[in-house]
Amino acid sequence: MGERSVKSLSGSATINAAFSFVPDGWRGAWGALLLYAVPLALLQNGGTAVIAGLPKAGDWLSKLSVAEFIAAPVLVIIMLAGLLVSYGALFRIALERDTPGSGIADDLGPAGLQWGATEGRLLGAAVLMGLCFAPVALTAFGLFAAPIFLAASRAPSAGAMLSSFLMTLLVMVTAAPVMIWVTTRLSPFLPATVDQRRIVLFRVWPLTRGHFWAIFLANLVIAILGGVLVTVAQMLALGLRPLLLSATGSTMISAFPLGMLQSLAAVAVLPAKVGAMTYVYRTLRPSRSVAEVFA
User: Contact, 192 vs 280, CB < 8 A?
Assistant: First the structure.
């Protein structure tokens, strides 16, 4: 596993695999994707106000209530659960499509709605990834940005604020390439976790050696397309807002369909991300037993 991978991975093939999986992903996991998209939509444009039942008159954004403060964290929990369920369903479908009869999708629920050991392992893998990167981020902030912010707060001059901004920018510019490199190299850890039925993180590192640019290119194309879809959705929402407002007479009621439009645009490329990660994992995994590869 310490040797350089001799398998070939093409960026264009990864992109093709990513988008060819989108129809199958939505067809098999539409319920899970909606479970993720709906709370995301409610959290946009003040959608929690609809649940909280705030008054329609006046600027409702300034009329926060206890109900909204309760609704927001509940929606965040549901949204994160929906994201986990979506990933679990999509990876089951993608892995089963690549290896029919493997039994990976045997516990797939209707419309991709299920919660089992797979979702628990995905949660554990995601938490482990976060715990690995949190100390690095906190250390970088503590060493560079925090002292400058502290000095600026004690002497809030233009020079101090400029120094604070430049130092923060330096930290971001320095840390971003490292973070991108590491996360790209570890990108197959989620499909590996589902396929191996155990939490897999750093064991996928040797698999991606020598394939950074192919994986990065595919991720970049998917991210750009996702950004374009969200931007188009936001422009449509701005255009439709006056029409919905005049039709409903309520800012709150018109907020949800506009938020849903933007939410669906953001969620639309999630199957493509799963398709790309699964293709990378299946292409680079050595043709050996699970015990040999991930021991």
Answer: no
Percent of the chain with pLDDT over 90: 43
Q: What is the mean pLDDT of residues 32-41?
A: 92
Per the CB < 8 A criterion, the answer to whether 249 and 180 are in contact is no
pLDDT in tens, 196-220: 999 998 899 999 999 999 999 999 9
* Rounded Cα gap, residues 255 and 250, in angstroms: 9
**Using CA atoms, how far apart are residues 166 and 40, in angstroms rounded to an integer?**
33
Do residues 269 and 37 lie in contact, with contact meaning Cβ atoms separated by under 8 Å? Answer: no
Tokens coding 10: 């093409």
Nearest Cα to Cα of residue 127 among 212, 190, 182, 209: 190
Q: Rounded to an integer, what distance in angstroms lies between the CA atom of residue 235 and that of residue 231? A: 6
Amino acid at 36: Y
Using the predicted structure, report yes or no on whether residue 15 has a pLDDT greater than 70.
yes
pTM of the model: 0.80
The total of other beta-carbon atoms located within 10 Å of residue 142's CB is 10
Written as one letter, the residue type at 215 is I
Q: At 270, which amino acid appears?
A: L
| pLDDT recorded at residue 72 | 76
Please check whether residue 259 is in contact with residue 41, taking contact to mean a CB–CB distance below 8 angstroms.
Answer: yes
H/E segment holding residue 50: helix 48-52
Asked whether 94 and 25 are in contact (CB, 8 A), the reply is yes
Are 233 and 261 spatial neighbours (Cβ–Cβ below 8 Å)? yes
Q: Please, are residues 209 and 186 in contact by the beta-carbon 8 Å criterion? A: no
C-alpha span between 268 and 20 (Å, rounded): 13
